[in-house]
Amino acid sequence: MRGSSGRVFLTRMGLRNIRINRTMSVASVLVLVSCLMLIGLVFLAAVNLNGMFTEFSSRNVIMVYLRPSLETQQMADIGRKIDLLEGVRSCEFISSAEAKRRVLEKNQGDFALLNGIQEEFMPNAFEVFPASQAAFSETVRQLEALDPGIYRVGHFQEVANQLAAIERALTIFGAAVIGILMLVSVFIISSTVQATMYSRQQEIKVMKSVGAAPAFIRWPFLVEGVVLGLMGSAAALLVVFLAYMGVVKALDPLLGTLLGGFRPAPFTTQLKLLLPGFFAVGLLTGSLGSMLSITRYLKEKVYEKSELDE
After folding, report:
1. DSSP-derived secondary structure for 146-205
2. Of 179, 177, 87, which Cα lies nearest the Cα of 131?
3. Beta 150-155 vs 88-94: how paired, if at all?
4. Contact 202, 55 (CB under 8 A)
5. Residue 241 CB: number of other CB atoms within 10 A?
6. Strand duo 125-130 + 150-155: pairing
7. How far, in Å, CA of 221 to CA of 190, rounded?
């Protein structure tokens, strides 16, 4: 049996192996789906955390809230003091009315109760732009001690730092879990292929006895491993899509309210990375698992034969 017809026959044998060993095949696919699902969700979580970090970093501003009892002249004096600080590039006065307008515009009617809010509830404030990121912490300290008319200094630096720490921890944890699951996936697929080989020992012996080349024997099992890997990749991509869209649908309004203009990353923009990545991992895992099994099996049988000959 030679040429393309031989490869077609061997490919069909590999597909038949998957049907014969349904239980192990399903186990292989499920383990690979679990591994790739975690890879995808960790990746998407990291993308969104990075987006939050960028959003907060872009708000490299310090809000200086003023006490409500201050007169106009007192607020102007505080503004001049802020401008004189070395770490300040510029500052802008935000009145209660302007603060209310910004809140309503940003939330776009998400909270109907905001429509009836009184301007006095929103404090007058200065929006302070630091000269540099390096001067941020020192500028905050100076503003907090600047004038008794200042009752609170607000900024997003701590939130941005916490998000960066969470992103690092998630990346490390995800990499460890993914590495373990990938090893498990290779082992399960290897075991599936090996179970197929032991169930077809007589057939393999016949092929070897008539002079079948190792590549001829390996091909059906390689097909089996690759198909299992690709099936796991496709299923995992679907699961990640459904899970991510469900989470985004549930949390998008809340995130939009709490984090201002931030919106979760669209799945379609990440698909160009996830699609080739998933199928590459599935292809590599499936082919590696099958090749490890068939290579070890053939070596074992050759070793046994040489012992008997002696």
Report:
1. T-TTEEEEEESHHHHHHHHHHHHHHHHHHHHHHHHHHHHHHHHHHHHHHHHHHHTHHHHH
2. 87
3. unpaired
4. no
5. 15
6. unpaired
7. 10
C-alpha to C-alpha distance for 89 and 128, rounded to whole angstroms: 8
The residues near 52 (Cβ < 8 Å, ≥ 6 apart) are 163, 259, 262
Per-residue pLDDT of 168-186, as tens digits, reads 787 788 778 777 877 776 7
Q: For residue 92, give both structure tokens.
A: 């802008």
For residue 66, the cross-strand partners are 150
Residue written as token pair 């909270």: 111
Comparing CA positions, the residue from 246, 276, 258 lying closest to residue 39 is 276
Strand order across the 125-130 sheet:
88-94, 125-130, 62-66, 150-155
Please give the DSSP secondary-structure letter assigned to residue 276.
H
Report CA-CA distances (Å) from 110 to 26, 113, 159. 46, 9, 24
- Which two tokens mark 162? 């916490």
Calpha distance 150→145 (Å, rounded): 9
Burial of 20 (0-12, 13-18, 19+ CB in 10 A): middle
Structural domains of the chain ordered from first start: 3-56+160-300 (no CATH), 60-155 (3.30.70.3040)
| pLDDT tens by residue, 54-95 | 666 666 688 899 988 888 899 999 999 999 998 888 888 988
User: In DSSP terms, which residues pair with 126 in a beta bridge?
Assistant: 64, 93
Name residue 238's amino acid: L
Looking up tokens 């490919």, which residue turns up? Answer: 11
pTM over 0.70? The answer is no
